[in-house]
Amino acid sequence: MKTMVVGITGGIGSGKSEVCRIIRELGASVLVADELAREVIETDPSVKQKLKRALRFDPFDRHGRLDRKRLADAIFTNPRLRTSINQIVHPAVLRRINGVVQEARKRRSKRMLLIEAALLLESGADKMVDYVVVVDASKQLRMPRAARHLGLAKQEVKRRIHAQLSSRDMRRHADFVIHNDGTLEDLRKKTELLWRILVGIHSTSGLT
Q: Could you give the number of structural domains in the chain?
């Protein structure tokens, strides 16, 4: 059986990480692109050097760990710089994601592989997946969620929302959409339904 690869994306505060957590409990493997990006940034000498040149400051502490807040403060207030940083980081991360996907498919794992990526569509990672799932919610709900979970000020949340694709544009590329405007229990029920649908497709489609 060929491994099914599913991309999960959504704007900040939409609840995509919670959806991935639930699906991991149900049996899928989950690759978090944000964690992979941090690993690439902290361990790839070429990426580190290019970042320092683009930023014009050193975003790493004395142990070589990335100061994520300082980096975010820089790129979310400067769209041109954000584009430059993405052009440095995305290709390296995509190579790593592609390696994981190819290895999973080579092993013909029966487990589904999910890729959680806020920039799934912007980075081109959606071309590596079989299906795209967009987790969506109203801005009125996303704002307080992001502020509460990430410890961000309201203005900072607004900047990050505006830096991402709009919900409308994301939905245009989606094979499935989960609307997360209710309770956590509502989200679990919708996620479990999505899981059953994906498992059904996996067992009957050309992916087998």
A: 1
